[in-house]
Design goal:
Radius of gyration: 16 Å
Helix content: 25-40%
Largest sheet: 6 strands, mixed
CATH class: Alpha Beta
Number of domains: 1
Strand content: 25-35%
Order of helices and strands: HHEEHEHEEHEEE
């Protein structure tokens, strides 16, 4: 059996730090949390690889680099309220950093309450309106929007005067069932 602690350290050193993830809290959390615990035992050897790993039917963990970059862009602060949608590993990292996390495994389920951060580890066609509506003032939503071969990791931010969106990097996780892009007929 491979030494998973060494694999975890190598993941942080070769995938996370080299991708300009400089938040020590994220690096430390990723060093401490056993990513293999979030995937089936038969896939534990893939947990630290530079790839998305299916942890349940139709659900994937983001690549270590992608989840670290996304979390860094969200700028999590202790005591913030977080909703983690189909994001068990991201939830664990944020909890390790002192945030209060509500987990919602079904990405199509209704969202109730308001949150300072919302994060999703699977791709969606476009951020659901219910997710952006659940952002508190100053709240941030981090996800991957994908409508084609390459998706874009995006951060949405709620301000008193509206909602802003910016793209931060390319990413290719599979799209979550029920959240595919909806295309209409056009002339």
């Amino acid at each position: 059996m491979a030494n998973l602690a060494a694999a975890r350290e190598n993941m942080v050193e070769s995938q996370v730090r080299t991708a300009d993830v400089t938040d020590i809290r994220i690096q430390d959390a990723m060093r401490d949390i056993d990513r293999a615990a979030f995937v089936p035992a038969a896939k534990a050897y893939l947990a630290y690889a530079d790839m998305e790993v299916e942890y349940a039917p139709g659900r994937w963990l983001l690549k270590p680099r992608d989840v670290a970059k996304l979390l860094q862009e969200l700028r999590p602060m202790p005591e913030e309220r977080v909703l983690a949608i189909a994001a068990p590993y991201a939830a664990a990292v944020l909890e390790h950093m002192g945030l209060s996390v509500t987990r919602q495994e079904d990405p199509t389920a209704a969202v109730s309450g308001t949150y300072d951060l919302i994060v999703c580890e699977g791709a969606v066609g476009r951020a659901p309106a219910a997710w952006t509506a659940a952002l508190a003032s100053g709240g941030r939503l981090g996800l991957v929007e994908r409508d084609g071969p390459v998706g874009k990791a995006c951060v949405y931010m709620r301000a008193d005067d509206g909602l802003g969106r910016r793209q931060i990097f390319d990413s290719t996780p599979p799209v979550l069932a029920g959240l595919e892009a909806q295309h209409g007929f056009a002339f």
